[in-house]
Specification:
Nucleotidyltransferase, domain 5; alpha/beta; single chain; 6 strands
Length: 131
Amino acid sequence: MRIAVTYENGQIFQHFGHTEQFKVYEVESGAVTSAQIVPTMGSGHGALAGFLAGLGVDTLICGGIGMGAQNALAQAGIRLYGGAQGNADEAVQALLSGNLAYAPDVHCDHHDHAEGHSCGSHSCGGHHTCG
């Protein structure tokens, strides 16, 4: 299993389409065997699903994520755990133990937000239109 987490300063970054890096975890027999930070190289929104698939990722943990990106991830066969918050390493451990708090119906629609909104500046994750 290979898990990617939208990543910024040790935390789950709260806007999938704007993430500048992922932390990618290799998991074998239910335990993390390695982890590395991978820059997105400027890939955004739609291109990120292909980027993750190219890394062999089969699971994604993130904060807010739009429907287009969700559909692209589904087409790439990547399981989504959106609406998650907090420390990236702890989130992966929680997922592996079956205790990850996430929002199965997460959604982020920035067309409804005021100009200048950034999911990275607040807690998206299931409590309003970003999660």
